[in-house]
Amino acid sequence: MLPFYAQFDQALPPCIYVACSGGRDSLVLLDSLCQLSRQLNVPLQVLHVNHRLQVISDDWQQQVEAFCMARGLACVSLTLDWQADRVGQVVGQVNEQTARQARYQALANWLDTHHTAAAPPVLVLAHHADDHAETFLLNLCQGTGLRGLVGMRAVRVQHEFGLPLLLWRPLLTISRATISAYADAKALPYVDDPTNVGTHNRRAWLRAQVLPLLKAEFGGWLDNITRTSANLADAEYIVNAQAEQDLAACLLTGDAADWTPTQSRLDIAQVTVLPLPRVRALLRLWLAYGQPYAPPQQVITQIIALLGLAEQSPLSVQSQIHWQGVTVRRYQMTLYRLDAHYASEHAHWADSTRVQAAVAAMLATLTPKPDFYPMFSLRRPHAGERFRRQGKSFHEPLKKLCQRLAIASWQRDLLWVIEHDGQARALWLPQRLIWLAA
Questions:
Q1: 0.90 exceeded by pTM
Q2: Which of 165, 170, 254, 290 has the fewest CB atoms found within 10 Å of its own CB?
């Protein structure tokens, strides 16, 4: 058995799920886990994803199922249907990244249905040290930050596919050569993926054309990259710890503007006093929440310009910045992050029936209750309408009132007028009442 269990510092799960393609790496992993499973008395559940992208895909599935049957292992095969599940995908045009996304989504969907324990399921993957080094080099050449250079981690929780998955990569410090020697010594019946040979994609090209040169010139190249990546992981930890402190200091929470979890706000006055490197780190952390990848430098640069921290013509500064379903907007001295669900949440409050119920519930909690409760009606503000707030001696246009109360321009179509006997008594926004003079 390969000596990797010491890497797993989590509580022992009731079941270990193993992703197995039938290739050399995953069969070596599965064989080692069989021994570990017996020692720890933890059952294994093997999950195979048939991508149906190659002529021999069904043969791989049958071989994995036969391997598991011979060892008394539970095995489930998940078959991807590209036409049904991914409209517009042509099998011949599916790239490595698309196949990876589809594979993880299929695994997450199955686990969401069948995993019943409270803790996230532990999904074991067969990535090894050479895979990690290849990812490091690819990310380096494509341009990346610390997160990309740190690359894969031995243990981490992934939230990308709806269900939290605790990914465990026990082979991450073990070389391809060691894994191959293990497979040959035990005569494991693995299959060779033809996409690993040739130069048809960047990883295969790197493996065929570049790595042999590195091995010839730098004998310890693999250990050196592994050590460098570990050092960068320490640096990333320090940067993120500072960014978390800065984010906590700049985040606006706990007032009436916090009407939806799909929105997050930063105090621009607090952000702009920070040194620019810390601003960039803070923005990366803020934007990356709930996302599988860190935002690219271009997006961070655009937000820096929106904050007024870059020497850039005002005409070239974008008023809205979009990335991965997230929209970043500025209003006055507040920076807003609106996630992909904000639009549907916004549309929810266009329904007068929902608003009527929400207003009634809000008024019912007040002590004392307003004199018009529960007899009130709702309407939208009229164009050019003026209002006098409670305690004020003057009327003002709705636009001016919203500016005074820092109601962002894109939130104003959420406003409703609460009326009683034909008189406007209050303005309503989600979680907020603005009282008007009677």
A1: no
A2: 254
